[in-house]
Design a protein that fits this description.
7 domains, Immunoglobulin-like, Invasin/intimin_cell_adhesion, Big_2, mainly beta, BIG2 domain-containing protein, five-stranded antiparallel sheet, 43% strand, T9SS_type_B, flat
Length: 600
């Protein structure tokens, strides 16, 4: 009886059939792994099998190694990126293998390990193409760029994962951050002030304990000496806020200085001194010519000076001021008295200085006098009956009649200066001569432009068609009709203007022959248009009398030699069609049609 067919199915794809239909099966060892065959550099995976007595091996130990060559279970360690076959060979000699793919692991994550709530830090990894993630976004979030933002206090694990699944992690601690520091930041010697913060649990400290100390728990500031100290409140070396506390000494009046009245016989003087704190107002007491004046409140100016004025007029009269003392309206601290000091009337105002610049005929003449004291008036006189009452008068369209000496006096509350003077000369502009007349030139040619009778020259437009726009005789090569403007200037900056229009003629003036003799004698052997120097041939065709096209070209250098497909054509009349493009590209194409006689 014939044996029946035997069907086998093996995972490792090996079966052999021996005589009379008996199948001998070789069962290859079955390899299993705990974490798969896709590993990252540095990963380990346990490989197991159920066939005892065999040996393990790696096809490339530089990529993956086995922990032992024998045993039912081994550990495969990923060494470097690539693929390696992990094989198990049974004692009987049959074997099986698993291909392990090792992927590159990202470099270690770099960046700070601490951050404050609501602040950010930058986490980086030099391995590209990875993705950032936070294990707990309620503690910290991280953007795709690696910018980590603290959300609430706590510890969070940050991961950087490559597309292969390989990743690295880092631990970041999110610390609390203080609220803005509250409390009075200015204190007098002998007093105390207490600072507060809405976020509890932090520690207070003073940077300059020689100025003020602070209780680390209660925040009470005790002055030690006048000055400024930085007060810090926070939780870690990076999660803290600072403010400055100023310890004020008793107000001090420095050397007295005065501003005398600014008018002759006027009463607008003042007394000032350094010492008071900038930005603070003070109550000022003083005697005027031996009589107690009413106290006034005066702020310290931006210069750090305290300026005293009379309460009734807002000004100080000339006289003697004594027994001056101040009270700090913020701290209540009172200074020691100062004075006396005496104010006197001002001197005569200085002579004004006049500035002007050289001007040209029919331009605007600008005059300006210095304002040494401010608040005064000016009186100008000059040629041709000129007068003005401002410090910077002008004369529009000045003519030669405005040449001469100008004088100004400065009056400040009855104090009159000596006159200041200046001599003004109205300069004549140049008159351009020998200017090139407007004219027409053929396309592609140049023309030399001229202008004379100036010191400096400027031609426009400076569009590349002029060889030098800053000389009086440039060479112009326009390709389209152009109007050139020339400015001529003298040594005073006065200028004249002229215009030259160059019309560019791009019309075809060539000749199309009416006959040619292609007999090889070197004379009139080729039929083509003559004189298309700056034109472009769009199409050049020749037809016989039956309308058959026997020649075509779009090259200006080509012509018909009297043949068609290499065969000389018979004598007779032929017809041409020539389409020409204008060189400036601004006009429509020109079409020439006609006949030519072929003579042999």
């Amino acid at each position: 009886m014939a044996p029946t067919a035997i069907t086998t199915s093996l995972t490792n794809n090996t079966a052999t059939v021996t005589g009379n239909g008996v199948a001998s099966l070789i069962l290859y060892p079955d390899i299993a792994t705990t974490t798969g065959v896709n590993l990252c550099v540095g990963d380990q995976s346990t490989f197991t099998q159920t066939t005892p007595g065999g040996t393990w091996s790696s096809s490339d130990a530089s990529i993956a190694t086995v922990s032992s060559s024998t045993g039912m279970s081994i550990v495969v360690t990923a060494v470097s990126s690539g693929t390696a076959n992990i094989s198990y060979t049974a004692a009987a000699g049959y074997w099986s293998f698993v291909t392990v793919t090792v992927n590159t692991a990202p470099a270690p994550i770099a960046g700070p390990s601490n951050v404050c709530v609501s602040q950010t830090i930058n986490m980086t990894d030099i391995t590209p193409a990875g993705t950032w993630s936070s294990a707990n976004t309620s503690i910290a979030t991280i953007a795709s760029t690696g910018v980590l933002t603290g959300v609430t206090p706590g510890t969070v694990i940050i991961s950087y994962t490559l597309p292969t699944g390989c990743s690295d992690t880092a631990t970041v601690i999110v610390n609390p951050f203080p609220a803005p520091i509250g409390g009075t930041l200015s204190v007098c010697m002998g007093s105390v002030t207490t600072l507060t913060d809405a976020v509890p649990g932090g520690t207070w400290s003073s940077v300059t304990t020689t100025v003020a100390t602070i209780d680390p728990v209660t925040g009470m500031v005790t002055p030690v000496s006048p000055g400024v100290t930085t007060i810090a409140y926070g939780f870690t070396a990076s999660c803290f806020l600072t403010t400055t506390v100023t310890v004020n000494a008793l107000p001090f009046i420095g050397p007295l200085t005065s501003t005398n009245p600014t008018t002759c016989g006027g009463s607008d003087g003042s007394i000032s001194f350094a010492g008071p704190t900038l930005g603070v107002s003070y109550l000022v007491n003083y005697d005027f010519n031996g009589t107690l004046a009413s106290p006034i409140t005066v702020p310290v100016g931006s210069s750090g000076q305290l300026v005293i004025n009379m309460p009734s007029t807002g000004l100080l009269l000339a006289g003697t001021y004594s027994n001056i003392y101040i009270t700090n309206t913020t701290t209540g601290c009172v200074s020691a008295p100062a004075g006396p000091i005496t104010l006197t009337d001002p001197p005569i105002p200085p002579t004004p200085e006049i500035t002007s610049v050289p001007i040209c005929f029919h331009q605007t003449l600008f005059l300006e006098a210095t304002d040494a004291l401010g608040g005064g008036t000016y009186a100008w006189t000059g040629p041709d009956g000129f007068t003005s009452g401002i410090y910077n008068p002008s004369i529009v369209g000045a003519g030669y009649n405005n040449t001469g000496t100008y004088s100004v006096i400065y009056t400040l509350q009855n104090c009159v200066s000596l006159p200041g003077t200046i001599n003004i000369t109205i300069q004549a502009p140049p008159q351009l001569t020998n200017v090139t007349p407007s004219q027409t030139i053929p396309y592609g040619t140049s023309i030399q432009l001229y202008a004379t009778n100036a010191l400096y020259y400027t031609w426009t437009p400076n569009d590349g068609t002029l060889n030098d726009p800053n000389i009086n005789f440039p060479i112009a090569t326009p390709f389209t009709t152009t109007t050139y403007t020339v400015y001529g200037m003298n040594q005073y900056g006065c200028r004249d203007t002229a215009y030259v229009t160059i019309v560019v003629d791009s019309v075809f003036h060539g000749v199309i022959p009416t006959a040619f003799t292609p007999n090889g004698d070197g004379r009139n052997d080729i039929f083509h248009p003559i004189g298309f120097d700056f034109h472009r041939i769009v199409e050049f065709t020749v037809f016989n009398r039956w309308g058959q096209q026997i020649f075509y070209s779009n090259n200006i250098n080509d012509g018909w030699d009297g043949t068609f497909n290499g065969v000389p054509q018979e004598m007779g009349t032929y017809y041409y069609n020539i389409i020409v493009a204008q060189p400036d590209g601004m006009m429509e194409n020109k079409i020439y049609k006609g006949s030519v006689t072929l003579i042999r």
